[in-house]
Amino acid sequence: ELISSLRSKLQTLWEERELVLSEARECTKQGEELEAMVQDVCKPNEFERYMMFIGDLEKVVSLLLCLSSRLARVQNAMTRIDGNTDAEEKQSLNERHKLLSRQREDAKDLKENLDRRERVVSGILAKYLTDQQLQDYRRFVQVKTSLLIEQKDLEEQIKFFEQQLETLEKSIP
Question: Where is coiled-coil annotated (predicted)?
Answer without folding.
Answer: 90-120, 144-171
